[in-house]
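User: two proteins, same treatment. go.

Assistant:
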Amino acid sequence: MPQQALDLILTQYGERIGTYAALTRKVERVLTRLLREARIAVHAVTHRVKQKSRLRAKLDAPGNKYQQLSEIMDIAGVRVITYFQDHVDLVSEIIEREFVVDNDNSVDKGDLLDPDRFGYLSRHYVVELPTRRLTTKERERFRGVKCEIQIRSILQHAWAEIEHDLGYKTKEAVPREIRRGFSRLAGVLEIADTEFVRIRETLAAFARDVASKIDAGLQGLQIDKPSLWGFIRRSPVVTHWDEQIRATVGATAVEEMEAVEQWIPIFRAAGFETIGDLEKAVAHHGSLLPLFAREFRRCMGRYDDTLPIARGLCIIRAADAHLATSGFENLRRAYGSSGRRVSSDYLDRLYHAFTEALSQVSQPPAG
């Protein structure tokens, strides 16, 4: 590359580095908000500006024909890393709808893969922010300034990072005896990407089917996250005793908090195999549960706590009551075998709360 052109581009880079940095931050914020509004969970949205040393290396590469900075499309960069491969398409739809896309310089590099090509390549968009997403001051600052957005799944990202660290950009550069290993690994990652999508869809279908399974009968329904949450949301028994606990402890509301699934190992350690077993425990210990919950809050020093309780709390306390009925050692042993790590002090307070509540239920009425 002629020295004059190189010097010009590097000078322009120094003058505009602040604008590129501001643009990447803006694009990242806009994308993050759009993904949140679309309820698309992603692993990360990151931004970067190409370092001067990397820019110089790009300009020194054979075949370079750049004459000015505006011809280089990847100075400003934002990367979206999705959890699932098919979410790359969802993110692409948002970008195509919400940004001004330079189609001539945007490319799905996956379409460029040869059938035997190892590894993954990202989907790349070159974009500008539309006027409606810019303040009056930004409209002038970002006029004509482009940003590259890369989208890849987390497994594609892992491959790209490892491939980059190994230092091989093309299969021809890899020693022949090593290429088969690269190809096998790429195949495994591609299968894994597909399988994660299939598992996600299967879990979603199972969760949608839980309602009919609950209606068909609880006794044969195994305890897992979808079944447990379907039970909590649909069971009038759970709703009733959760509300009784809320009223007794003085909580402001009953909220849907998924922490209850962390107690599944406790349920199994307590001998509960099915959702029907849990329902029977709640019904059996029902009158004790509000007092048990209140006493446990007191034992934990939360006398004036009015925070909402989690939906399904009555199930947790019913399982604790079931264990504590056979004594402290049984309670301790079940928690220990479940793998749920709690302190001895926690268990002491839990058991003390149970005995206090039990004594109140057992007391005969005055007079």
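Protein 2:
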Amino acid sequence: MTDRAAFEQYRPHPWHGLTPGKDPPRLLHAYIEITPFDPVKYEIDKVTGYLRVDRPQRSSSLPPALYGFIPRTYCGPRVAALSAEAARADGDPLDICVLSERPINRAEVLLDARIVGGLLMIDNGEADDKIIAVLYNDAIWGTATDINDIPERLIERLQHYFATYKLVPGSPATVTIQHVYSVAHAEQVVRAAIEDYIALFGQPTEG
């Protein structure tokens, strides 16, 4: 136990030990699990905080943006309440996709991101929102402030990826993208996810 406590002094748990960002809900921290260059889906191990191999992707589709989650968020009843189509939320940290002009080919990195909108995704009846953001101070995307500042074709690629990344040949689709939403609604989702986290885990006392 002593060794573990000492270790956690130096490597905070990416979900619980980092803050949601510098100025939530607009300017956030994003912990990146997957890059656009890897056909394997990784996911944070909720107990240890290390990345775990979730599954190799069945298709050749790659995520069109950096993909990860916002620390100290949780998709619970408050997030579900923002989606009339969902019976509940997925019980995971809130997902975030981050656009960067320069290729970032490493996962397990932390970056500052400004949200611009999101996708309302329903997976097996659960709300599984995907916040869309841009890398803060990015040379190309850094001036974007709302979803309308992002090219429509790029939003289509994000929609297509998430609508198809769980497809299994011969089985019915379980994922639907209900709609794309603006930064105003994205801020509501982030606030709700932070409140859901505090309701479940308590108010952090540091960081």
